[in-house]
Amino acid sequence: MRVAVIGPQGQLGSALCAALRARAMECVELDRGRVEVTDPHSVLVALREARPAAVVNTAAFHKVDACEDDPERAFQVNALGALHVARACRELEAKCVYISTDYVFDGAKPAPYAEQDSPNPINVYGASKLAGEHLVLQTCPDALVVRVASLFGGRGARGKGTNFVLTVLERAGRGELLRVVDDVRMSPTYAADAAAAIVELLAGGASGVFHVVNEGTCTWYELAVRVTQLAGLQVPVEPVPQEAYPTRARRPRNSALSTAKLEARGLRLPPWEDALRRYLTALSSHA
């Protein structure tokens, strides 16, 4: 299978390219030099040249607070950009895969969210990604929409320059006191694990919405503590409430995702602590 990956230099995009090649699939990398998702002509030309059987769209404006300041750009990239890719996929009869987020939920549910739960985003980023989901599925009814969450992997997220794990390592390495939010629960996810599962879903012809995250949930504080422990860094980590760090965008108190639907297809990502251990090992080997 020939698969085009839009956004191949990001945390998930680069992991997807590696996972596709490991599965002996042909990967066509479409970075912003070759395609701009906000330009429908650019998208169609690039995909006509690539001639893929499937397209995985990881392109996103994912700076959550910046989305509040520039909602127009958020919807241009995350919603209209997704529509342009989906329309090109429909014309070229290619499978459309759209990467979405846990932030489509409001966080009011005390348990992990399932795919059938009603989305209710509380920030612009989540709203723009939910709009992208709807536009993709309306345009390509057999599309695959994958919600991921709290990604870590590679050397950090393109556009952000880092990820939470790398930030903790950097600050702990300087011996700084870490004050980390302990009343926001989520599903930490290793990009490499998510990518492998997405490739399996694609190979298996899956369609519809799937949650793809590592097993288990934790708070950001719990994740930070585990990072320092596994890295052997003796630094204090102090739990604080979300209100200690006011942000322009509201964050859901609980955005943990259930993977029961994924597991029903025989796919299950390892526990997040195992994933974190492997990520830290990979970072050490490339230091």
Describe this structure in words.
The protein is an alpha/beta fold. It has a domain at 2-149 and 189-214 and 258-269: NAD(P)-binding Rossmann-like Domain (Rossmann fold), CATH 3.40.50. It is built from ten helices and twelve strands. The chain has a six-stranded parallel beta sheet with strand order 2-1-3-4-5-10, sandwiched between helices. Strands 6-9 form a two-stranded parallel ribbon. The chain has a two-stranded parallel ribbon with strand order 7-12. Helix 1 crosses helix 7, helix 6 (164-173) packs across helix 8 (220-231) and helix 8 crosses helix 10 (272-285). The mean pLDDT is 96.
In short:
The chain has 287 residues and is of the alpha/beta class. Helices cover 42% and strands 16% of the residues.
Task: Write the topology of this structure.
Blueprint: E1 2-6, H1 11-22, E2 26-30, H2 40-50, E3 54-57, H3 64-69, H4 71-92, E4 95-101, H5 124-139, E5 144-148, E6 151-152, H6 164-173, E7 178-181, E8 185-186, E9 189-190, H7 191-203, E10 208-211, E11 218-219, H8 220-231, E12 237-240, H9 260-264, H10 272-285
Parallel strand pairs: 1-2, 1-3, 3-4, 4-5, 5-10, 6-9, 7-12
Antiparallel strand pairs: 8-11
The chain-level mean pLDDT equals 96
CATH topology of the domain at 2-149 and 189-214 and 258-269: Rossmann fold
What is the CA-based Rg, rounded?
Answer: 18 Å
CATH superfamily of the domain at 2-149 and 189-214 and 258-269: NAD(P)-binding Rossmann-like Domain
Globally, the shape reads globular
Widest beta sheet: strand line-up:
2-1-3-4-5-10
β-strand percent reads 15-25%
Number of DSSP-assigned strands: 12
> What's the helix-strand series?
EHEHEHHEHEEHEEEHEEHEHH
* Oligomerization status of the protein chains: single chain
Content-based structural category: alpha/beta
Task: Give the uncertain stretches in residue-range form.
Answer: none
The total count of helices amounts to 10
